[in-house]
Amino acid sequence: MRSLNCEGRKLNKKILVITNNPEVCRLYENRFIIKANPGNYYDVLMEVRDLVHQGYELITHPLMGSVKPNETPYRSIILKKGTDTDLQSVEIIEISLQTYEKFEKMKPSPKWKQSILEDFQFVDLRLFESSLDSTNLYT
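The structure corresponding to this sequence follows.
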């Protein structure tokens, strides 16, 4: 199991990023609280689900972009601490988990070469940065 060394530092304490993408960790560890998940896409979804049930709200959709869950190993999801359980976030993350399971059952994710993994990291990074732009979190 690989280790991601990007535990968050002070910064924007209202925002929490859950990611298994080392590039997101490397580039944004000094901007947001980042929780590195060394697992796969499903592991990230499960951790996000647990946080949503603890009162965090989704800022970005867990299935954002046009990349199917079984077509990429990386996912970065932005949350914020809420006051109560956000039912819309609960519904979105639960449906996202079901969608992931459905696609994995139809066609499991292959073992990717390192060069392909780096390409997937880049794609996830760009989706993450696009979501920062659209949610005004870049400022």
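The chain is about 45% helix and 15% strand.
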